[in-house]
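It is worth pausing here to work through a concrete case rather than discussing structure prediction in the abstract. The textbook approach is simple: state the sequence, then state the predicted structure, then interpret. We follow exactly that order.
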Amino acid sequence: MLEPKNGELYPLNPVRVETAFSRYPIHKLVKQKNVFIEIQERDGDGEVSAKWEVSYNSKHGQPGQLAYKVDSLVVNRRIDEETRPLPKVIKLGSLRDIATETGTNVANTNAVKKALFQNAAAFINASVKYTGSDKEEYSIEFAGTRYNIVLTGKKLPNGIKANAVYIVLHDLYRELLDRAQRRPLDYDYLKELAPAPQRFYELLSFQMFAALKNERPRARLLYSEYCTYAPQTRYFDYDHVKKQMFKVHAPHRKAEYIAAVEFREMTNAEGRPDWQMLYTPGRRAKAEFRIFTQPKKFIPVKPKRELITGAATPAPQPPAPAQPSDDPLVIQLCDFGITESKAKDLVLRHRIAVEQQIAAYPYRNLPPEQKNPAGWIIAAIEQSYELPAAFLEAKRRTDEIQHGQQKRAAIEACQLCSDSGFRMIKRPDGTGTAAKKCTHDPQTESQYENA
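Step two, the predicted structure:
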């Protein structure tokens, strides 16, 4: 749980999710029964403006809570880690990897496999409009499944045997993923939440972000719309509504994503009871908005996951020394309102401190009405302000991920060792075989004979 510490918040771990299909439901989040998913949205004239229907394969069943976790925590994460345009084939990892990431017992790989097939077999019949990353309006007529599954040992489209679980994206879905706008969510927070509160977070985040952006005191979500898009059972008496939503709200109150909730009773067009739910943003929601709306240069970049080729990621080369007038640090300092001459002087005398304080700035718990950011950042650099714990934790995590990614890329590129990074060799004294940690260096490994 992300808790206050020394006046700051722990860092957010963003995952960016497309805004076209993600607001519509695919999974049932109740355990007892199958859920009928069919949505029609109408414009001001009563005409159907969007259609969304989901049917499932009777052999695999309707995708449920675990399938939802697989989609939201694993598939979305892998898609986010890829550059655009997306590859058609994306690696998810082993069944055990997926079980770990979804909080499932690693021995329960059969349940993970079933969830994967449920997602892959969910047939979507949709006609929706969405806004692209270029701010243009697009529409899509989609009738099919979003992706296919290739399990370990099966053949990929290029004929290579899969060394893990992969998804093969439907062409129209891949086009939508490339084109649609994306919104950030806190990945670590998603992982902590049970399915119903997680889905609530995904839906409310649209409204919460808009409220904070437009400086409105509260975000609004209609109860009937929440039940439709979650999907959840809809009630028509306040006692059931209050009890149902209390369980959904509880983890978000505890985490300070929402500070207060108000229900306003109303009647819908059919004369049936409904409630407008009003949410006061909490400290977590404000922190998300502040960090997610910082310029992209301030947000740590996740390392790219190597996929089918298995080629190792080249080690980054140090940039050639830039001329002072072209130095990106000078440009970034000028963005704070510092004069170019002062920025050049700071970079010349305190280059490392400049890099650290600029990178740490989004993690400071500074008031949004900060009047003099230029003066503040100058003082931070010249007086070596202590770096916030949130920034140091984010940097540690990023370094750890990069190290792990480089290690995994080296293993995947190596022709000698297994997926675990070890190889079986004959003992030099001829007494049998042994498992040896591979160095991935052909010259070093040539000293040993494969068992």
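Step three, interpretation. Residues 301-393 form one domain. Residues 389-413 form the longest helix (25 residues).
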